[in-house]
Amino acid sequence: MATNVGQVTRQRYDEMVAADRQLVAQIGRAMFTIGDHAVEIEPMRSQDGSVPHSDELFGVGTSLQIYADDIGLALSTVLNYRFTAHRWPIGRRREDVSHKVHSILASVQDDTERFEAIGHPPVDDVTGLRRWTTNLAKKHVGRRPDRPGTVQEKVQRIQDLAVDEDVAVAVTRDVLRRPQVAARLMEEPATRQAITEAQKPEHRAETVQSLVKDDVTAAQVASDVLRRPEVAARVAADDTARRNVNRAQADRSRQQADAFRRESPVAPAVRKIERTEEFVDLLGAFHRFVREASRAVPKMRDRSWAGDEREVLMSNIARARATLDWMETAVSTGEVDMDEELARILRGE
Description:
Blueprint: E1 4-5, E2 8-9, H1 10-41, E3 46-47, E4 51-52, H2 60-71, H3 75-87, H4 99-105, H5 111-118, H6 134-140, H7 151-161, H8 165-176, H9 179-185, H10 189-198, H11 201-211, H12 215-225, H13 229-236, H14 239-263, H15 267-271, H16 277-296, H17 307-333, H18 340-346
Antiparallel strand pairs: 1-2, 3-4
Helix pairs in contact: 1-3, 2-3, 3-4, 4-6, 14-16
């Protein structure tokens, strides 16, 4: 147990609490007395003998306003004391429970339930003791406590304060700056979907860019999306992207030609030939084509291609076949000119 409470020792604190409980009891008795007097001046009227009727219908406000003014209290305070005194007749009041708790529990309609409840206080989450506090009393009657304790109560309080959109945006922005909170939110599919749907195209692009800062992830994402024909077409329309792709292809061709020189079983024989750069490039292209095709074609077993996929594949097969014919002609005759039909096929038209 802590040795101090605030700036006083635990012993001094306990002494003050014991004395102040007596003061609270005295104040409570005074409030009940004022309430009893208000009931005597203007008895509580009921509708059909049960539920207290609106005082406005009986004009009690005038006399009780005079009484409130004469004792120096607000009319609303006197009316509250009056209603509480009516709900808690002498003999049902608890000296060890504050007048405020009596006032809150006064809203319990059933007399038996109300009188039973005050004698059986709930467990206080703070102290672990059974006792009545204003917070616990408000929870008992279904009102929101002044000091939220459970997660749901805290959430409800924040929601109440964040009804205004500007407040909601500020709160959300602040909590999402905490990595642990953002990570837990993104684990919920509904939250991720809501965020995605709310984003504008430029925001989505910015999000993707932030996620692909490392080259490995970026390459994987680019590889995946470029397999979608409509995406590839739009990327190819970008001059900078197209130049970068062409440059990367040229670099890869040179790398594969170097790999061929190092790894191909026919490389020693080829090295005996007086090679030109063009010969090595072409041989590397053949090597790459055969290797990649050997990997890809077996995966096509029992595969059904959609109409647009089949069309794209057949178009590229035609381009590859035309390219091979062109290369064969060039090797056989030395002629590298192409007619318009060949040019159109190679352009993919």
